[in-house]
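User: Please fill in residues for this 84-position structure.
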């Protein structure tokens, strides 16, 4: 049983919830029903393990980094922006 069937949702609700185009989703379900490969496989996506920092400067410039929660990363970003 696939994720769609296990969800108990309508096709429209499932497609919306997962950001899928409804027409494309219908096509995938049809292909699967008649035994044709869709060329897709279900995957598990690990949660993002890094933190994100976005710095918005007064001139509108946005600087963002992803880091492992290390204080040194934030310090280096601030020093770089400040020109230290």
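Assistant: Residues filled in for all 84 positions:
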């Amino acid at each position: 049983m696939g994720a769609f069937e296990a969800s108990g949702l309508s096709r429209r609700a499932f497609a919306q919830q997962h950001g899928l185009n409804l027409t494309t989703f219908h096509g995938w379900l049809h292909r699967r029903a008649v035994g044709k490969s869709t060329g897709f496989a279900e995957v598990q996506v690990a949660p993002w393990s890094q933190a994100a920092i976005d710095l918005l400067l007064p001139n509108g410039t946005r600087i963002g980094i992803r880091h492992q929660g290390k204080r040194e990363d934030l310090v280096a970003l601030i020093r770089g922006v400040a020109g230290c």
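For context: The helical segments are 3-7, 11-17, 22-33, 71-82.
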